[in-house]
Amino acid sequence: MKGNSMKTTLFTSRFRKSRFVSSLAAAGAAALILSGCSAATSEAPSSSAESGTVAEETVAVSLILKNLTNPFFVAMEAGARAKALEIGVDLTVGASKEEGDDQGQIDLIEAAIAQGQAGILITPMSSNIYAAITKAREAGLFVIALDSPTDPADIVSSTFATDNCAAGEAIGQWAAGKLDGKKAVIAQLVIFDDRAVPVDYCRANGFLMGMGIDVPTLEEMDSAASSGSYTSGTGGDYEIICLEATGANEEGGRSGMERCLAANPDINVVYTINEPTAFGANVALKAAGKVIGEDVLVVSVDGGLAGVKAVQDGQIQATSQQYPLRMASYGVQAIYDIATGGAAPANTSANGQFFDTGVTLCTDETQDAVVAAPQEDSAYCIENAWG
Which is more confidently placed, 369 or 44? Predict the structure, then answer.
């Protein structure tokens, strides 16, 4: 890790209380029927003054995901298919072969352009696909990013996403509160070590900032000092032991955690980019004789069904729940509305750059230090989980 004198990037994301209702709005109801789960929802997107042209044919849309195996993206596909069936959209679904497969997404974007589709919903793999997105927009397609914002935000037409910085901030605040002044010996298990991706650096650095650790540059994964003091909760000392790329999967979580433990076996706080990574990390922690929840705290982001059940079972102490089904359902509706003469969705996030689909901190041990998101227990989060 390193400290530096670079100009501080201000962390402008602040908690904006999400409005929840007890059942899905009509726009998402069909998606829930398909997926067999419920979800707390924020309001459906309102519209801005920007408008599209009236379509003369069936509206064709491509959903381009990072993969088709992660439960998060499986839920996103289910939400998109249900909405497409409901309103009569011709939906094509494709995905990269694996994390880091930029060319797979580029090929699918090119196919959507060649087919003359109305728009694309995409979870962007990295900045390497930005040129292809620009080409699609120049060809007249409305491109919506889901879950993973682009940097800069205006690479796409619009974004429907979780505030990933707030999601990271919430679990950092929780960890600081739970430590209650104890020294934090931190392992960070992220996605990549060879590229900067907003969902990656925003969650990881948001976690540190939630703990009250200074992060000079949000976009740099290693800009925080490797040791010092955290200020959230009652505050205390910290040491960052490792920053390991995992590919956001279980095997990567296991091997990354093993490397971290080899560097320092006294790690007591583990940040994980998502819950599959946490499950892999737990295998390594248990093999090292660690009692999860006592010797070490494990925090994560996503809020899938398996993840929040792990919170209930004590294998993850806190996770930030997001709502992929909602993102995809709203995205299909937005492109349909634009293609049939309606207006583009208005941004609702605190920084005005995307439509915020909400986040909830799931834990059975609430902490007063958490202000970045509402806290709910595991039973609530299981009821509202995807996957």
Answer: 369
